[in-house]
Task: structure prediction
Amino acid sequence: MKRQLINLVLFFFSLAFLIACEKDENKLIVLTAAGDIQATLDEYRSMLGNNNGSIAGSQSSGRRELNWDGVPDSLASPYFLPADFFNTTSRARGAEFTTPGDGVQVSADHDNPSGALPSFGNINPIYEQIFPPFSAERVFSPIGSNIVDLRFYVPGSSTPAVVKGFGAIYIDVDKVENTAFEYFDINDNSLGVYATPVLNEGHVFLGVVFDKPIVHRVRIAYGNSSLGPNDGGSVDVSVMDDFIYGEPQEP
Result:
């Protein structure tokens, strides 16, 4: 009986140790900023490593970035951006987008041939005022939904990948409960939900870094409504600028 009790104690001790180790392996760092976000942005970049640009294939370390400004007029608002635009051979950054809405768009620039207003002003003229870009001059949003799912792949391929962290710039976050990232692993298990700061008509940043590459998908919520003719009151809309994430690697 005594031996059985000792074995039982050892079992629970080992179980507790394994759980503690698992939690320790999944420790993370969360960075947020509002208004003057540049210093926090630079800190987040340095935590992930050097910018690997559009090099095809996984690199041993570093980060990738999306800033939308190189998107051609023919693929900017009022036109839709292909879901794999940033994972083709010439733009191999390992990022692909889906949405339950109509698709994703990058806003028009000031001299686009279609005459669309910047910052999605073609959808609602007030957006040109309330969505000031962080890095001039295009911004990003789903259309027909307030949700985007970002999945990572080995850059330039269809091989699923994981990253060490993901962070991005939101514009015009009015209500903290409406705008957030939820991270998922390769098996689609949630790794947690993290909300942004709030700053009306300004820039906020949210970035999370895990201690190892583990994130395959990020569900991004943009306010509580899709872009449209209304804003204010119970309607809270938001768009995004630069994306920064760890080097996509095979799990």
In short: The first strand starts at residue 28 and ends at 34. The chain has three helices and twelve strands.
